[in-house]
Amino acid sequence: MLRHSALETLYKVGKYSRYEKHSLKFKEIKNLEITQIACWPEKINELNNLLIKKLNINNIPTFNKGIVVENNSLWRMEPLKFWLFNGEIEISEEIATTLDMSHAFTGIEIKGDSSTLFLNRHLPIDLRNKNFPHLSSASTAIHHVSVKLFKISLNNYCLYIPRGFALSILEILLETADQFGYEVLDR
Amino acid sequence: MKSKRLNNLGKINRDKTLNFTWDNKRLSGFEGDSLASALLANNIGIVGRSFKYHRPRGIFSSGVEESGALVTIGSKDRRDPNVRATTQELYDGLKASGQNAFPNVNFDLGGINNYIGRFFAAGFYYKTFMGIPPFEWGKGTAIWMLFEKLIRKAAGMGSASRLPDPDSYEHAHDFCDVIVVGSGPSGVAAAIEAAEKKLDVILVEQDSELGGNQLSENDFSTSNIFNQLKSLGVKIMTRTTAFGLYDNCVVGLLERVTDHLSIPDSTLPRQRFWTIRAKHIIVGSGALERHIAFNNNDIPGVMTVNASKHYLNRYGVLTGEDIVIATNNDSVYETASELSEAGANVTVLDSRTNIEVNSNKNFEIREGFVPYNINGRKKIDSLDISKSEDINKVDTINCDQVLLSGGWSPAVHLLSHRGVKPKWDTDNACFIPNDTKENITMIGSSRGLWNKDDCIASGVAGATDALNRLGISKTNYFFPKPGGWKNPIKPLYEIKYKKSRSKSFVDYQHDVTADDVRLAHREGFISVEHLKRYTTLGMANDQGKMGNIIGLSLMADLLNKEIPEVGTTVFRPPYTPVPVGALSGRNVGKHFRPLRVTPMHQWNIDHGAKMIEVGLYQRPWYYPKQNETLSDSYIREATVVRKTVGICDVTSLGKIAVQGPDATEFLNRIYSNAFAKLQVGKARYGIMLRDDGIVMDDGTSWRLSENEYFMTTSTAAAAKVMAWLEELLQTRWTNLKVNVTSVSEQWAGAAVAGPKSREVLNECVEDPSLITNENFPFMGVISTFLKGKIPCRIARISFSGELAFEVYIKSDFANTMMDLLWENAQKFNGCLYGLEALGALRVEKGHVTGAELDGRVTIDDAGLGKMASIKKSYIGSAMRKRGVLSADNRETLVGFFPTDLKETFNAGTIVCEKNNVKGQGIGRITSVTHSPELGHWIGIGFVEGGLDKWKNTTLVGADPVRNKQMDLKVVSPHMIDPKGERMYA
Lengths: 187, 985
Hints:
heterodimer, A: alpha+beta, Gyrase A, domain 2, 2 domains, 7-stranded mixed beta sheet, 5-stranded antiparallel beta sheet, 12 strands, 17% helix, globular, B: alpha+beta, Ubiquitin-like (UB roll), FAD/NAD(P)-binding domain, 7 domains, 6-stranded mixed beta sheet, 21% helix
């Protein structure tokens, strides 16, 4: 089934730079799949064991950290809340509730040499590696809009913006990106 | 003053000539020049007119403390007033002009003020224009408002462009272990020491070049320290001013990104507003040389000594030919020697006697002498001098420049921002920084060190202090003692002129004289804070950089106290001006607020919607057909909905997933009506009260399964309700197993309303049998599929009063849903309808929204008292029973018709009794519309006692804002289909 992107009117694939430099790359994450898992406090150990078993992972990420396993990933957004990407999971209501959030956010990959510098034009988050290592996440805000930022690897981030604000936020991001030179990649 | 460019000195790039204009006159300079140095190189002496007296002013300094050369840069939409020529880098094509002068700074009609200046003493405006003497004519605010406009035109600085700013600005954030402010010898030493210890270091320098005061040294090269710092990984930020220190080691920086460029890169912001979060701040902000107050000490050609040295060695400009240097300290002698070597005829007046000077003495030194009076009007003709111990003119020296050094004031402004009061150092006649428990260390001349070796040692000590405070090391260190001159400074602030009329300036920028300070004292404004505000000494963007100490010394003298007893004012951010554009960043124009759109935003526009802002949302307002006005359009849309069917984007409603075994109990506690027995597959309209018993919000909750609900809220209260639910779960009912999550963005919604709505849905769903009246009764909920196997949720609920449904679909499928609904609605001559028609329909039906539920209304006031359960406890259930909330005469929801049905009225109209139209009346109209169904204007609102009290009485609607009155009839708020037969059809 065709999913319509929130960025449709602004997402123009191509290279944009006055100086032939493209130190930023943007790519919308297509067919985003997010399942929120919200655990009851006394059931966290049971949930941990379940996730380890069902997702075939070695350990549970700590708060604001994530684990990437083959095609899916698990991120601990709050002490008792996880986001599972690209995976379905059945969990008893006695342990946790699950909720589909796939359409609630627009995901954009932001990579390139200038990505950290660029993101700090908007985010008051210390993105230096020692404080925000790979597979870290943060709930923060761009232009007063609450967003989630994931660091996948060095200068490689995923930004999740509430869908209704995504167009407006992308527009302001691209204005900032202009000084670095950027490329919008095919989805 | 005869200033000129020298060929053998300076660090400018003589291979690159830059052309610029000054007051439309074509001039040239070199790359590396400041505007001030280029003006001096072209022997431009007068660069401005003073704030109040319009006295001609020249260039006083070479840095941010400049208060004479405030000029206007650029033109049209890029016109910037009050730019310091001393900090403006020259670029090709720069247009600069003097300000506060007509027709120009060389000949200014406003100069008349100088001759009637005795009337413009401190407090003149307040004394005179708040009631003109001798009879206090026109006393009061009105007369002041009148004169204020004239005064503001006559006095002041330049004028800003009225055109929209074409440049962009941006905010930025950075983080480091140590930020070092200032790249003088101490700052560089601190940065190197910290970087060598593997700390993340940011070095900030307001100049375009590193070096601080060393840039005034002939043999100094910036490239060596630049390379060393770079090799250690120090992040160097030039053209960047630390304008303020804030809590938790936050430093505010302003980076001037393109202000120095002839043709700015359009992709770059003009300026960048940085917020730096550091673990430790090291401030090496230097010291500012003071002038001396004496008569006519502002004539063009007066300058600080160190500034002259900068112009000489950095820019290759000799600022005068016959130069008199007046001082009370040792710092001037090297400059005197260099100026002399450069060809000037130099005389030094030192107020001290028996001093020891390390100099080849190629100039005359007159010990025990001070400047007394400058002769000249637009330029210096000569200087009268006096003996320092007996103030009287004893001699006159012909000269074209007077350089002043009345001592040095450490730039303690940034530390002062943290509330740290500086302490007076008597030996060095200056305020030096006090201790602070915060992670801030002052180094270099900003802590009162006057020689380079001490500054470097203090930089290393500062970095060690940072390492110790961060717990990285425990190394002993010491800071050199303040001072460093061979001969002690002798305080010298003012040389009092013996004649009656004196213009002895303390604060050049605000035309504050020594006599103004004395006047303030006479009139009782003896506190430094009162002195500042009464005289304007050290106010605005000057922040006392040059004149503060002199003003304090004069007040101390008048009070027969010492300077520290008088105290000092608090320096406030910003240290140097921060343009409003930089404060705004990118949050201007269309980005003033983030724009929120529904998933079918573009679909709506493509189908002819005119949009309206509703909070942050853009919502369809109306869908005009050719030549239709708003009224035409919404009346047509509402009529079509009542007759056939309409489709409306209702995505902006708040949507919250309520999940968990205790979800039912949770809803039962927050809603006033019963939810405990709501069946799966049913929705219920609910009213939520605040703790105080007032209505918070309304909406529907759909029971999707045993333990899962889909709650809708009003658009306006979505965030508030979400936060409220979270608060309840996290603080009051921590034992409830409930998760609440905003799913407002996950789901897109459309209302399908009108007698044909069921038929439209029949065409759109995979299984039409689900939509029959029997299978899908009023307030029923189904989860099913739209054609194409698109999962959706449908509730049979109605805001319009018609048979209606709300269809929700995952947001990325919203366009598909709209295509499907619209395609089938057209088969029944349906329409798309917007917010205006939605409002008309709900007013006809008497449904309330935020306009009615405005935070003052109880559930009974809204006519929904039957929904307040008496069998259970819920939020607000106790407090709603307070007497004041259940009084008989409370304003209650009613409908209003104009008695004359041709009349119109507006929301906000005050409802009054006949012959008693005054005050707040007895009620108010909250929402109005033209009713397509009834054919005239209708409204809903509140009136004391409600319908029963007034149903047979004519009331008056008073609209004082529009100067309008009309007779009103009170009717039931449910103006169409009061029994709900259409909804249940």
